[in-house]
Every structure is written in C-alpha cells, then in structure tokens.
Design the sequence.
C-alpha cells in the first residue's frame, strides 16, 4: 500500500534550545520551524554539532538537564503545545504519541534485563494489561520487526543478540504503542552496510503499513534520497534550506547545501580527492551577527557578514536563507530578517 | 549457572585451605609454645616430655596433617586461659553476638548509604550532593575507637538515651553499630554515587525515558541494578572490615563477641583460641565473597553466561 500524505501532525514554530555552560550560552537550536504530515518522511541533515539531535530531544522534552533548556517556541503535536505540558503529561505522550530510535543499538538496551522485559515495559507504561497478553504483544512486536523465532528471542538478553537485531528491538520498542511520530536519530550509523539497507527497508515497510510520520536525522544524503520526502538542512542551530528531496538535489540553493552535496562521492565519476568544506562551523556560544556560513562561503560579501539573511522562496515549498536569492525571489511569508 | 557456582565454590575451598596453612605457619613462627607453657626452671627432660605429649617432636608436615584433620572435625584444641573450654566452643559461644552486631551495622550502613549515594548522583552539584560529601568525609576520617567513646559520652552519659555498654535489647546495639557502620556508609555512598553517575549518562537510560517511564523507575530500577555491581564487590570487603572492626568496637562497648574474645586471648597468649577465631573470620570472609559472586551473576546476565 502506498503511503498517504495526510494532515499536519507535528508543527514546530521558532524553537530555541540553549545550553547554559560555564563558557557562555550555547545556542544549540536557534529558531527552528518546520511541519510534518502524517505518513511523511522528513530528513534533517547537517554536520555533527549543528543542532540536529538537540532538536529531536527538544521534541520529546528530554534535553539534558540542567544545562540545556528550551527557551522559546511552540511544539504542536496534533494541536497540543508540548511546551505547556506538565512532566507527568509528557510521560503519557512519550512513547505513546511520539517516540525515538537512538543511534547505537549496542548501548541503547539495558544489559541486565531481557529484551522481552524491556519491550513489555514500554507497552505496559501506556496499556494496563495482564501478563500473558503483554507477552503476546511483545512477541507480536518482535514479529513486526522481522526477528526470527520471536517466542524464544523475548527471553534473550541484549548481549546475546547482534547489533542489527538489537536495533530491530529498539525499533519494536519505538513502534510498540503506535505513536504518530517517530524520530530516527542516525538509526543505521553503527550498523554495517548490508544490515543498514535491510533496516531502512524495514522502516519503510513499517511506515507504509502504519502511515507513521518519520523524522530521519542523518548526515548521509544517500539515506535522504532513499527514505525522505522532504529535507531540512541545518547549520549552526538554524535551518538554512528546506524543501522537497528532488528540489534540494536538483537545485540546491544555499551554498552550504551545495557544498554538502559536492562532498558526497558518486559512483560514475572518478575523483582524485573528495571535496571538503574548508574551515569549521562557528562556535555556538560566539555566533557571528550575519550569516553563520559566511566565514566558509565562497560567495560571501560584506552584507552576509553583517546581516542574517531572511528565508527566500526558491520554488514551491522550497526555502533557503541566503542573500544571493534576493534578486531571484520574494522573501517567504513566515520569516523576516532575524538578528 | 550451576557450573559457575560450582567453580566458585571449589575456589572458596581452595582459599580456605591456603588460609589454614597460613594460620598454622604463623602460629609456629611466633616461637615455641613451650616457652610460654613451662615454668622458667623446667629442664630439658621436661621439654622433651611435654613435646612428646603435644606431638611437637614430630616433623612439621605431620603436625600440619594432625592439625588439619582435627580442624576439619572442628577441633582446635582446648583453651589455655579458660580451662575446661574448647577453643571452638568459645568461638561458637561468642560468634552470634559478633554476627548480630556486624549484621546490624551492615544493615544501617546500606540503608543509609544506598539512598544517599543514589540521590547525590541524581542531584549532582547541588547542596544535597555537598552535604552527602561531608557525611562521607566525616565517616572516613573519624577513627572507630574515638567515635565510639564520643557517641557514648553524648548519647549514654550526657543525654542518657542509650546504655553505655553490654549486650541486651536493640538499644544496646545502636551505638556500637553506628560506630562500626559509619566508615562503610562513607565508602559505599561514594561508590554508589560514582557508578550511578556513569549509568545515568548511558543511552539505555535515555531510551527508558523515551518510552515514557517515570523518573523514579528510571533511577531505582534501570540505573541502580546496573550501578550495584561495583558497590557489591565492596560488600565482600566490608564483611572483612566489619569482622576486624569488631575487635575495636567490641572492646570500647564491652560487647561480648569474638572481637573481645580474641583481644583477651591474645593478651593471655591463648594461641588455640586465636587460631580458631582467625579461621572462623577467614571462613566468614570467604563465604561472603562466594555469596557476592553468586549475587553478581544474578544481577548481571553477562557474567552468568561466561
């Protein structure tokens, strides 16, 4: 069954998450807005430390306390603003309405409990049920992620399973309570390549079967091309470009996106050296006033260094924060210049 | 699991046997017991007669075999100081008092150290964390003989809430148990705190929160069970420290246990009793270690399958 892209399930508006450290305020997420429809797959791409994971943790309100805090913004999950919920209400939402798959399956399961036990626990938090029916649901959950012999596997400890198998269990935990939104934070980074493809296929199948909305956090454009409908490119805590996958690949409009795409190796071209972006991202506690990419951008001029560019529309549903688009297009309606 | 326990059990027996060798040789190294037993004016023929009587004229290996055979039957000879009592009989008679005190001290220290250690880790960097550090520092720096006397002076002499010494109801146990246990509180608390900090940072803890589990269960179910391994190792050591610590504490509070017995026995050069006490202490220590090894396997499945 093909996926049906439905109504907006998640809308994030002007999200700011800061870390208060002894070196100063780190603006890890600095004004991120996006929306996600039912059945849609959104990719968040960017270098390490650009705020991808921090954005994801903010959606669950699980930013590392006490250093990090969500300072501003709205997170609307099916219309409910999650930032106005109490901690108790949030617990009823986590796992049940929004869930997450972590990066490293080797460490994301508790070594001292069986996988069945951990899966049952996830179900039990949101569904009060008898022991026997919980066990059956756990076995069904493992079946859903294609674990062979699930009746036996529920009694295994994590260390008795392979990495790919563990990541399937983590997936089963994430979907066990039929959430509307799943965030997959680099779900295949620590798996080897053949297992990666299998796991992505599995996620796609689950998404098709349940019409889940999925956010893929990754730095791999290959995964984006294969899995996502839309892409959001983040740089230094901000979304610098977003749009449909095809638009981003065909007409990347922000120099950072262009640079990222040219650092991806291709099969049909032989190159001596892979392209790499010169310089490093700015320190997040000492951000420049203007465009954050200016220092590494080949096209940067005086204005880029002075003023942060507004979001310009580069096509239908395709926006980019770059002054070079000023002549070509109108500023998009929902954001003006920001300091 | 059974193989694991069986192997650990055999290792414990081996340790106990080595201990018997050490006790046997140490007693011989201290000198000829006849020098203490016989009067100064005793002649060589006296020495020879008594030697033959006690079997001391035989080679050391034979003596050891005799010692071991008797020891295996629980016979460590008769006390020289307390006439008419066997050494083992005296120890057996005093042991319950020591075990009671040590058990109570262990209970107090765990009941205090575990929650404080966990909370200090969860509330790292707050006032509570610093307060816990101070409790730990005091516990580790106050020597038992001094703490015992000061506690006695405050709570028994000045306030009159608790008896000064002796053995009776639970009120007699409180002061000696605190004296014996406070040092452990400090150590266990620090261990629990540091291993909890490691676990609190791990990914699986993040996952339990993503599932929507309450913070209480995240900390006390998922974290503590992982963090318990290191402090558990320490319990085996504590068992030993509580035994040796009982020597000081029992003397201060005149607690009629093995600690007090061994002090009296050493003063009287009653080697039979000393040997019996050392072997029994060693046995308890080795047994606790065996118990801890089994508990490990229960707590951490990765050990079970090795």
Sequence:
């Amino acid at each position: 069954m093909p996926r049906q892209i439905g109504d907006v399930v998640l809308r994030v508006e002007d999200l700011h998450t800061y870390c208060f450290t002894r070196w100063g305020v780190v603006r890890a997420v600095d004004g991120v807005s996006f929306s996600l429809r039912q059945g849609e797959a959104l990719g968040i791409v960017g270098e390490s430390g650009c705020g991808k994971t921090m954005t994801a943790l903010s959606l669950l309100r699980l930013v590392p306390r006490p250093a990090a805090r969500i300072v501003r913004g709205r997170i609307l999950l099916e219309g409910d603003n999650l930032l106005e919920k109490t901690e108790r209400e949030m617990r009823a939402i986590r796992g049940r309405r929004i869930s997450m798959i972590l990066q490293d399956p080797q460490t994301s399961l508790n070594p001292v409990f069986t996988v069945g036990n951990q899966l049952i626990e996830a179900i039990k938090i949101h569904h009060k049920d008898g022991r026997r029916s919980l066990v059956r649901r756990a076995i069904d959950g493992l079946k859903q992620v294609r674990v062979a012999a699930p009746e036996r596997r529920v009694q295994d400890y994590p260390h008795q399973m392979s990495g790919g198998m563990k990541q399937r269990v983590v997936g089963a935990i994430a979907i066990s309570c039929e959430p509307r939104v799943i965030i997959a934070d680099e779900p295949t980074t620590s798996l080897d390549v053949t297992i990666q493809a299998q796991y992505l296929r599995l996620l796609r199948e689950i998404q098709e079967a349940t019409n889940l909305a999925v956010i893929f956090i990754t730095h791999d454009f290959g995964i984006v091309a294969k899995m996502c409908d839309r892409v959001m490119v983040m740089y230094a805590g901000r979304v610098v470009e977003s749009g449909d996958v095809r638009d981003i690949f065909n007409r990347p409009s922000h120099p950072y996106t262009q640079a990222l795409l040219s650092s991806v190796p291709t099969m049909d071209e032989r190159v001596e050296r892979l392209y790499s972006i010169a310089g490093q991202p700015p320190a997040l506690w000492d951000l420049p006033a203007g465009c954050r990419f200016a220092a590494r951008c080949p096209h940067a001029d005086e204005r880029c260094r002075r003023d942060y560019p507004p979001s310009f529309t580069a096509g239908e549903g395709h926006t980019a924060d770059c002054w070079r688009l000023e002549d070509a297009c109108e500023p998009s309606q929902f954001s003006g210049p920001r300091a | 699991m059974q193989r694991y326990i069986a192997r650990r059990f055999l290792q414990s027996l081996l340790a106990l046997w080595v201990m018997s060798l050490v006790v046997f040789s140490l007693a011989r190294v201290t000198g000829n017991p006849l020098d203490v037993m016989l009067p100064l004016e005793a002649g060589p023929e006296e020495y020879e007669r008594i030697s033959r009587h006690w079997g001391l004229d035989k080679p050391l290996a034979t003596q050891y075999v005799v010692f071991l055979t008797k020891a295996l039957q629980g016979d460590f000879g008769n006390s020289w100081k307390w006439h008419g009592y066997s050494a083992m009989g005296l120890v057996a008679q005093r042991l319950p008092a020591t075990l009671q005190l040590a058990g109570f001290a262990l209970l107090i220290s765990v009941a205090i150290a575990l929650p404080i250690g966990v909370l200090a880790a969860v509330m790292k960097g707050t006032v509570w964390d610093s307060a816990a550090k101070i409790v730990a520092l005091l516990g580790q720096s106050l020597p038992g003989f001094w703490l015992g006397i000061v506690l006695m002076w405050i709570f028994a002499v000045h306030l009159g809430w608790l008896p000064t010494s002796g053995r009776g109801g639970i009120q007699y146990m409180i002061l000696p148990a605190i004296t014996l246990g406070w040092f452990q509180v400090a150590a266990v608390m620090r261990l629990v705190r540091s291993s909890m900090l490691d676990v609190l940072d791990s990914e699986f803890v993040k996952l339990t929160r993503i599932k929507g589990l309450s913070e209480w269960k995240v900390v006390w179910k998922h974290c503590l069970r992982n963090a318990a391994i290191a402090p558990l190792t320490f319990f085996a050591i504590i068992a030993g420290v509580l035994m040796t610590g009982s020597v000081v504490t029992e003397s201060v509070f005149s607690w009629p246990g093995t600690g007090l017995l061994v002090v009296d026995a050493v003063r009287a050069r009653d080697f039979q009793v000393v040997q019996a006490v050392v072997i029994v202490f060693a046995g308890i220590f080795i047994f606790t270690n065996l118990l801890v090894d089994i508990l490990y396997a229960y707590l951490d499945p990765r050990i079970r399958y090795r």
In short: The longest helix of chain B spans residues 87-122.
